[in-house]
Request: fold
Amino acid sequence: MNIGIFCHPGIDVVFLKEFVSFLKKSGHEVTIFGNALSEPEGRSQEPGEIIAHADLIVSVGGDGTLLRTARYVGDKEKPILGVHLGGLGFLADVSPENYKEKFTQYFAGDYKIEKRSVLASKVRKNGKVEKFFAFNDFVVDKGSSLKMIKIKIFIDGEFLNTYRADGLIVSTPTGSTAYNLSAGGPIIFPCLDVITINPICPHTLSARPLVISDIQEIKVKLEDSKGTPFLSIDGQIKTELDNRTEIIIQKAEFHLKLVRLKEDSFFKTLRAKLNWGKDVRSN
Reply:
């Protein structure tokens, strides 16, 4: 099996050497993006070359690293298995403490592939169209302005609402536990075919998060915006907006494929990350 590894830049090289050595001793070829290791532990190649030849993509870092890895993979739909080294994360269940057990399960075929939906956007501004893909969310942010912005939303061409707010989050089910959760949005089971629209700090309490089908198209227009509003893609890419910008968001034609190993589940992750089921009251 060919395994491509994408790492966080600040990764512990000692752990990475041990991890790569384990994979190679298990009989697999390993290639690494970047220069974290030199021969003989692993060969460094460019992302496109690694992805083209890999049977499995491994992300080593936090959720941000996995999202960057997914961006490299794009519509190639190669399976991604995350090794989690960060803080609060929802996308990877493998850790430095259990990676040997978990990867042994994977090599034995004891796993399943979860197909997660991806969002695609077309940003029309200055007579040009920019295209982006989001695995977690698209966020319209008011930027440097101290005032709220007005955001007009249409669903399949029908006017929905004009939000006066600090911004707007349009998220996938995978992204429901990211910024959407912090902004009071609902937690969505990650394999559902839906999109969440969540205004950030809206001026009126009647503006609530909305869950729609992912076969619907969302159009976003800004009105009377001050400062420099921008569109954030997964918190990693940013493009500036203005009052003439139009954003079209809909489900992408490809999926993010995440590897789930034995005994790992979304509900188990929620219990562990959010301390559900524990009495946290002081005595």
Summary: The radius of gyration is 20 Å. The first strand starts at residue 2 and ends at 7. The chain has two domains: 2-110+262-274, 118-253. The longest helix spans residues 13-25.
